[in-house]
Fold:
Amino acid sequence: MKTALVVGATGLVGRYLVDELLEHGTFDRVVIWVRKPIDLQHPILHQKMIDFEQIGPVDIEVHSVYCCLGTTIRKAGRKDVFRRVDLEFPLQVAQLALEAGAHAYGIVTSMGADPLSKFFYNQIKGEVEKELAALGYNRLLILRPSMLLGERTESRWGETIGKLFMQLFSFLIPLNYKAVHARKVARAMRIKMEDSDLGTEVLSSGSIQAY
Structure:
C-alpha cells in the first residue's frame, strides 16, 4: 500500500496539498498528523492525533512525506519556539519516516533560505534544508515560495498589506519575487514529488508560478 504522510495539513499550503493528494489518486492512503481532528472525510484519508512535542516512531510503512509545518516568529512568540516548529519538528519527522521506509521528502521553506543569512527566519529555513539534505533521502524536494496568497484561518495584517501592494504593482515585480498562491505551491509539490528518484531539487518561487 503506497502511503503519503502529511504534516502541517491544516496550514495554508497543507490544506491545498491534502486536496491535491486526495483528488489525483497517486497514493492508496493519505495519512495526516494533526493536533486535533479536522472536518474532512475521504475513503483514503486517515487522521492521526499527534503531540509534536512527543513524536513517537512512525507505525506505518511510508513512501513519501510532505512537510508543510511552519509558523512565524510573531505567532511563536520566541525564537526558540519558532526554531522548534520550523527546524526540529521537520527533522524529527524526516528521521522517523526514513526509518519507516520513506523514499521521498518534500518541504516548503521560503525564498531567501540560507543558513548563513543575517535574518533569523531565513537562517532557520536554510538550516532545515541543510540538515534534511544530510539524511540521505532518494528524493528531497525543497520549495522556496515568496509571499503566499490564499485564505488563511488567521488574519495577518502585515501580510494583507503586502499582498495588496504586490498585486497592485505586480507588473513591476520580477517573477521570482511575486506573491504566489498556496494552491500553486501545493500542486508543484504534488507533481514534483512524483519524481521520486531524482535526488535533491530546489524549486524557486518563479518556477512554482508555472503550476
Observations:
- The chain has one domain: 3-208.
